[in-house]
Amino acid sequence: MELQQLRYVLAVADTMSFTRAAQRCFVVQSSLSHQVKALENELGVRLFARTSRRVELTDAGAAFLPGARAAVNSAERAAQDAAAAAGEIRGHLTLGTIPTLTAVDLPGALRRFCRRHPHVVVTSRTGNSDDLAAAVRTGEVDVAFLGLPDTAEPRGGRYRRLARERLVAVVPRDHPIAGRRRVHLRDLADEAFADFPTGSAGRAQSDNAFTAADLTRRVAFEATDAALIVDLVGNGLAVALLPTGVVPERTELSSLPVVDGPSRTEYLMWSDFNPTPAATAFLAELAVQT
C-alpha cells in the first residue's frame, strides 16, 4: 500500500469521478484507475462501485476512507514538521472568512505571507461565522475570520478580537429618510429588509437589536452575499443594516448611522490543538501569539 494510492482513493471519493480525480491529481486517468484497482486487489475488496457513468463508495470503501485520510494527513504533517524544523514552511493553509470582513486587509496579509513562504498552498473558504467556527473546531479550517453579535464569542478554539463596529442603515438614495443625519430602528421597522439567512451570525446582529428595541421587522430577501444585499437596496427593493466597510460609494445608495442599531465584533479564530506550521506562520504574520 502506497501513499499515492491512498491520495488517489481520496480524490475519487471526494469528486465521485475518476476523470475529475485524475485532473485533481495531475495524472492520466488510466494510471489513476490502475493504481486504485491494484490497491483493491491488495486489500481483497472493492472500494468503489463504478460504471462508465457513475461512481459510488462501497461499504468497504466507506470504512476504509477515514483511516486512509488520517494516514495521508499524518504523512503530510510529518513532512511539514520536518521542513519547519529545517527553517522552511510547507504544506497547506486553509482560511475561512466571512463575506463582510473589514477589520483586516486579507489580500495584503496574504501577499506578505506568500512572499515569505512561497511553498505553502493557500485555500480560502467563504461562509457564515457559525459554520467557519465549527470548521476550525473539526480541523477543516486552520484560521478563520468571524463576525459575531456582541452577545457571542467563538467557542472551541483560541481567538482574538479584531474590531467592533456599529452597522449602518443602507437605503436607496431616493428613500424619504435618505437625507437624515441619523435614524432609529423604529424609523426602519416598517421597511422590507434584505439580510443574511435566518440563524446565521450575520442575521442575529440585526435580529437581536430589533428584539431589544421591542420592534418587529420583515425580511423580504435573504442572501449569503453582501454584494447581492447591496444590489437589492440599490434597486429599491429593500433596506439593509450592514458594516460600513462593505457598503460601496454608489450614487443610488445612502448610508445612515443608526442610534440604537446593532453592532458586531470581528474575531480571528484558530485551533488550539496542534496548529500546523503554516497556520502558526500565518498567525505570526498577523502578529498573533499562539
TrEMBL record:
<comment type="similarity">
    <text>Belongs to the LysR transcriptional regulatory family.</text>
</comment>
<keyword id="KW-0238">DNA-binding</keyword>
<dbReference type="Pfam" id="PF00126">
    <property type="entry name" value="HTH_1"/>
</dbReference>
<keyword id="KW-0804">Transcription</keyword>
<dbReference type="GO" id="GO:0032993">
    <property type="term" value="C:protein-DNA complex"/>
</dbReference>
<dbReference type="InterPro" id="IPR005119">
    <property type="entry name" value="LysR_subst-bd"/>
</dbReference>
<dbReference type="Pfam" id="PF03466">
    <property type="entry name" value="LysR_substrate"/>
</dbReference>
<keyword id="KW-0805">Transcription regulation</keyword>
<protein>
    <submittedName>
        <fullName>DNA-binding transcriptional LysR family regulator</fullName>
    </submittedName>
</protein>
<dbReference type="GO" id="GO:0003677">
    <property type="term" value="F:DNA binding"/>
</dbReference>
<dbReference type="InterPro" id="IPR036388">
    <property type="entry name" value="WH-like_DNA-bd_sf"/>
</dbReference>
<dbReference type="InterPro" id="IPR000847">
    <property type="entry name" value="LysR_HTH_N"/>
</dbReference>
<dbReference type="InterPro" id="IPR036390">
    <property type="entry name" value="WH_DNA-bd_sf"/>
</dbReference>
<feature type="domain" description="HTH lysR-type">
    <location>
        <begin position="1"/>
        <end position="58"/>
    </location>
</feature>
<dbReference type="GO" id="GO:0003700">
    <property type="term" value="F:DNA-binding transcription factor activity"/>
</dbReference>
